[in-house]
Sequence to fold (130 residues):
Amino acid sequence: MNPLERIRIWSRKDFPDPPPGLSLRQLAELETDHDLQKPVQQLICDVHEECLNELPPKVQGESEQHWNERLVVLQLQRLIGAQKRMVSMMGRVALEHERTSNALVKLSWVLVGMTAVLIWLTIVLVWIGK
Fold:
């Protein structure tokens, strides 16, 4: 059985366009909040959308050198957009690992406490039985 056969079952979370006039920091914080709310599959889909984003056609009368320079800039913009989404995905994974690790630490302390109670009860019952 393929563990990823139901991986396509996810729903896209759409967000409104950011309001005009935001500073770069506010815009980055808003994007971060949105990306952390998205399912991992949507972040992967966003990476593909960034990479597959169509390049505009050559403008009539545009020199070959200018067209090549513009093409390089547009390709870099696509790459940066894809990298931005990949960083978001890595952040999501890091947060999940942190949450899971914290839960394991708490459960470990619960087990230490339960073991201490069992040891204490064993000592008390052995002492009473003498």
